[in-house]
Amino acid sequence: MSDPITTRVDRSYGPVHTGAGNLITINQPISDPSALLVDSRGRTPLRVAEDELTWLHERFVHPPGFGEARERLEATGTVLLDGEPGSGRNAAARMLLRELGGGTGRFHEVLPDLENSPRLNPAHIGDGDQLLLDLSTADKHLWREIQGELSSFRSAVRAGRAHLVVVLPHHRVEKHHAAFEPFRAEMTRPQEMRLLRTYLRRDGIDHADASRPPAPLTEYLAGRPPIREIAELAALIQRARNAARGAGGFDQWCVTALTAVTARDKDVTQLVTERREGPQRALLLTTAMLHGAHADAVHQATASLLKVARYPEDTRPLLERADLAERFKEIGAETDAGARARFSELGYDTAIRAHFWNHMPELRGPLRTWVADTVLLPQLGQDDRDGLVGRFAEECLRTGHTDELLSLVAQWASAPRGDARLRSAAHALELGLRHQVHGRAFRKRIYDWSKQTLSAGLADVLVGVCAEVMAVRHPDEAMVRLHHLARREVRGRAAREALLTLVRADHRLRRLLLFRIARDTEHDWPADAELFLDLTEPGPLLDPGARVRPLLAETGVRSQLVTGWGAVFRRRPHPDWAGPVRGWLLAAWEHERHRDALLDVLVEGSGGRGDVLGQLYVLTRDWAHAPPEPGDRRTPLVDLLFDKINASQATRNGEIAP
Length: 658
Known about the structure:
- The protein is mainly α.
- The chain has helices at residues 45-59, 66-76, 89-98, 140-159, 192-202, 215-222, 227-243, 249-262, 264-274, 278-289, 295-308, 324-330, 348-359, 364-374, 382-399, 402-413, 421-433, 439-450, 456-473, 475-487, 494-504, 507-519, 526-535, 538-542, 555-571, 574-590, 595-605, 610-624, 635-652, and strands at residues 78-82, 107-109, 130-134, 163-167, 184-186, 333-335, 341-343.
- The chain contains 29 helices and 7 strands.
- The strands form 2 sheets. Strands 2-3-4-1-5 form a 5-stranded parallel beta sheet, with helices on both faces. Strands 6-7 form a two-stranded antiparallel sheet.
- Helix 10 crosses helix 13 (348-359).
- The N and C termini lie far apart (60 Å).
- 43% of the residues are buried.
- The model is unreliable at 1-23 and 25-37 (pLDDT under 50).
C-alpha cells in the first residue's frame, strides 16, 4: 500500500508504538485462549482498528479534493481516489470512511485475490461495512482485471448498504473506464506547513512556536518531501525539544531535527571511515542497535558481535585497554545518569544502522546471528529487547530483505513455550505485518506456516499475531489462518478459541467460516465438526441485528448448515451432537417464525438416513417431555418433526409427500 499518513519516532521501534498498534506478549503457555483477542491495554481488534482511525483523525489535515470525494461517497456509496503517490490518499480513504458515521458494519481492507478469480469476492462485504480497496501498487494486469469486476462488486456494496473507497493506481497504462468517471475524485497534497503544525500540536508543541518557521524549515518543506517524512520530521523536532529540555527555542529544535534528516548520512560515513579498527566499528554498530540500553549490555553485546564476526581476541592485559567511557567518546556516544549509552547527536543511531546495512552486506548474516542471541542477554530489559528486534526489522523491511527477518522469526519461534524469544518472534512478525509494502509477504508466510505441523512455540506466536494484529485490518485473512491452525492443533485449544471469538463478533466472518467448513467436508477435519457445532448456536443465526434478515434466512447459509449438519451426523457419535440439537429444538419452540426452517435443516442434514432420523425423533420426543415442561406442551413440535421426517422419506422413495 502507498502513501499513508503515519509517524515514526526516528524509525525506532519498541514496546510503545506511535499510533495504536499492538504489542504481543507471549511469555508462557496460553491458559486463557480468549485473551488472545485482547491486547495489553484490554482492547479487542475491533477496538484497536477504531483507535487507529481516531489517532489518524487527530493528526489528519483535509487535503484539497476531500470534500468532493466525501460527497461522491455519500451519494453513490463508492469513490475512486486519484492523485500522486505520497499525497496521503490511503489516509484520506480511511478518514472518508470514518467520517461517514452511523455505519452498522466495521472498517476493513479488501484484498484482491492474486491467485484465483474473481479477484474481488462479494462475500467479503458485510452489511454496512466500510471498505478500503488500495490498488495504489497494482500492476496493469491486475488493474485491468479489477476494472472488469468493479461494477458487479460495487453493486454488492450497494446491496449491503456498505461504502467503498478505492485508491487508484497512479501510473496507469490503461486508464479507468469512462463509466467510472462519476465516482472519481482527484486528491492533492495538503499544505506542508499546516500538516507539520498539526503533528507538532499533537506532540505538545504550541502553535505559536511554529507560527514563524525558520528559513531552513521553509526551504525543506518547499522541496515537497513525502508526507511520511513530514510526520517523521515532527517527531524529530519533538525529540530535539525533549533532548534540550525545552531550551533553545523552536528555531533551534528545527535546525537540530533537519540536520538529523539531511546531513546525518554524510557525517556517519565520515565517522565510520575514520574508525577503521574492528572494536571501534563493533561498538558503533552495537550502540546503534541497542541505543539507550545499559552500558554493561552494550559492552557485552559488542564482545559478542566481534566473536560472531570472527575478529581476533584482544590479548592485551586488561589494565592496558581503553576503558568504556573512552571508547564511547571515540565514537561520539555517551552515557547518562542511569549508565545508558546513547549517541549525543540526534539521528546518529538510525544513520549508523543504515550505513552498515547498506555498505557492508557481508555483515548481514553475522548480524542476524548476533541479534538472535543478543535478545537473551540478561543485562537487557524487555524494552531493550523489543527495541533491538524493531531496529533489525527496520533494516530488513527498509531494504526488502524479508527472508532475513522471517528466518529469524522461525528460529526464535522454535523455542519452547515460556521462552522469552517467543515474544521477540511475535514482535518481529507484528512489524512485518504492519508494514505498508511487505505486509502481504508476511501474511503469505503465515498462511504457509498455518497449513503445516508446527512446534508449540510457533503455533502460539501465529495464533497471537493472527488474533491481535492481522484481525485488525485483515480479519478475513486472520480467520483463514486461524482456521488452518485450529484444524492442526494437537496441544490445547488456543487457535480454536481465538477463531471462535473472532467470528462470533462478526456475522460476515461467521458466514465465511461456515462456507469453508461446508466446502471441505470431504476432508473430515475433526476440528471442523466441533467448530460447526459452536458456530451454529441458534441465537446468532436468528438475530438479524442491523441486517435486513437473519443468517438462517439466507439461501447460501441455509445450504451450508444442511451440509455441515450432514457431516456431523455422519462422522460424530450421537452424544456429540445431541446437546446442540436440543438447542435448536428449544429455538424452534421459542421462535415460531423460524420453526420450520430450523427443523427442515436438521431433517435435510440427515441425508435421509433412517438411523439419524430415528435418533432425531427420539431425542425430540424425550426433550419434549423433559422437566420443567408440564405434560404434552411441546408435543406439537414433535408432531411437526414427525411430519417432516415422513415427507422427507416419501420424497426420497419417489412418493408424493402429503
